[in-house]
Amino acid sequence: MLYIIMADGKGLRWNNYNDIPKHLITIDGESLLSRTVRLIKEREPEAEIVITSHNPQYEIDGARRYEPKNNVLEIDRFTAELIDDNICFLYGDTFYSEKSMDSIAFAETDEILFFGNGKSIVAVKVTDGELFRKHVNRVRQLYLDRKLDTCKGWQVYQSYAGLPFGDKSPTDCFVFIEDETRDFNSPKDLEG
Asked: Rounded to an integer, what is the distance from CA 173 to the centroid of its chain?
């Protein structure tokens, strides 16, 4: 399994709060990126881990950094050139609990499995890369054609699950994470 930690966002809402990129904020003495790499390695010691980012500060032991070729829209964080079979996308601005990482690492799927809560998608496990690419491309095109207001993980989930866009109902391809796993988009998320 290849794990891709997506950390190439623009961080506009975070705005380099306290002069720290949000992916490097520390909780209990460990940055979000280092924690995610550690949690993966504890579950799959031989796993290949890639951090997608143009920021050289995101060099983390146990992972390699990759600079995406295209990063215009939020959906581009899925790094089209890396989409393949047997990959797991994780969000670099997310604090993953031990329990949620167990769920993500050990879950099995024949195609695509999404993990999250009512607010955020926190991981996508992909067995069928071509099918995932199809839905990412569909959502991207609908956004470019102005048929969607946003294009990110939720819209890919809705496309794949056959849900109307905007519907966040859980289906059999969605694993609901109900613990302290959370993402950081703004300073309010850190302080709250």
From this structure: 16
Output phi, psi for 159, to 5 deg. Answer: -60, -50
Of 89, 113, 101, nearest in space to 36 by CA = 101
Residue 70: CB atoms within 10 A of its CB come to: 9
Largest CA distance in the chain: 44
Which tokens in the block code for residue 127?
């067995």
**Averages of pLDDT over each 10 residues, the chain, 192 residues:** 88 54 82 94 97 93 95 91 97 91 96 92 97 98 96 96 95 90 55 52
N residues, the chain: 192
Distance of CA 134 to the CA centre of its chain: 18
CA distance 39 to 92: 13
Residue 162 three-state SS: coil
Query: What is the reported pTM?
Result: 0.90
